[in-house]
Design a protein that fits this description.
Layout lengths: L4 E5 L1 H8 L8 H10 L4 E5 L9 H10 L4 E5 L3 H10 L3 E4 L19 H13 L3 E6 L3 H9 L4 E5 L1 H5 L2 H20 L3 E5 L7 H5 L4 E6 L1 H10 L1 H15 L2
Parallel strand pairs: 1-2, 1-8, 2-3, 3-4, 4-5, 5-6, 6-7, 7-8
Enzyme class: transferase
Catalytic activity: 3-amino-2-oxopropyl phosphate + 1-deoxy-D-xylulose 5-phosphate = pyridoxine 5'-phosphate + phosphate + 2 H2O + H(+)
EC number: 2.6.99.2
């Protein structure tokens, strides 16, 4: 059996809702169903432009989630204040660009080192476990460790978007980054672009503790429902590490 955790990102349930500015589908209800199906945690990203999750969703998730609530936040001061007051169990510091469709890469920890150090300390003081969402590059990992983050979440988008030999090379980057992270005292999560076809090689990486997966699961659940979707992803992760 795998000892890895599957965290389901519920943002895109809110994306569907916001297309009509309706009250359904409700990401909080979706999160509850994911937990009931075996998910180990729930992840959400409150963006400054509120394109999907809304403030009320965060409050609702905090009241409803019984496993672990992971809140993604940018380094923007207004968003950090919301994160500090959210009561989330974990925080992941991410880049944010209003022109992007979705997060396009990892946070530049080197460039953002002063703000990152402040944010890590503040969110840790708020009672949450902090991770930094970064590309699988040793120099970025070194800074994440230096500013006191206990976790990194490796950006798997380049791997997920590649094919053939390029994908194999990106997988090796993720493996090497995991080895390096653990060697300097960081714990490792992964996420972005992972789906039912590409997740197993990443889930098989020794040292990866948590996989954050959202869009692929929401999209599949449109056809198959929440329970079978969560259980199939759990099966693939467990099979990869068997």
């Amino acid at each position: 059996m795998s000892n890895q955790r599957l965290h389901v990102n519920v943002d895109h349930v809110a994306t569907i809702r916001q297309a009509r500015r309706a009250v359904f589908p409700d990401p909080v209800e979706w999160a509850i169903r994911c937990e009931a199906a075996g998910a180990h945690g729930i992840t959400c990203h409150l963006r400054k432009d509120r394109r999907h999750m809304q403030d009320a969703d965060i409050h609702g998730l905090r009241e409803a989630v019984k496993t672990l609530l992971n809140l993604e936040s940018s380094l923007d001061e207004s968003m950090l204040k919301i994160a500090e007051a959210s009561g989330a169990d974990a925080f992941c510091l991410v880049p944010e660009n209003r022109l992007e469709i979705t997060t396009e890469g990892g946070l530049d920890a080197i460039r953002e080192r002063p703000r990152l150090a402040d944010a890590v300390a503040r969110l840790a003081a708020a009672g949450g476990v902090v991770s930094v969402f970064i590309d699988p590059e040793p120099a970025q990992l070194d800074v994440a460790a230096a500013v006191g983050a206990p976790f990194v979440e490796l950006h798997t988008g380049a791997y997920a978007n590649a094919t053939g030999a390029v994908r194999a090379a990106e997988l090796n980057r993720l493996i090497a980054a995991t080895v390096h992270a653990r060697s300097i005292g960081l714990r490792v999560n992964v996420g972005h672009g992972l789906d039912f076809d590409n997740v197993q090689p990443v889930a098989a990486i020794e040292g990866v503790e948590e996989l954050n997966i959202g869009f692929a699961m929401v999209a599949r659940a449109v056809f198959e429902g929440v329970d079978p979707t969560v259980k199939e992803m759990l099966r693939l992760i467990e099979e990869a590490r068997a």
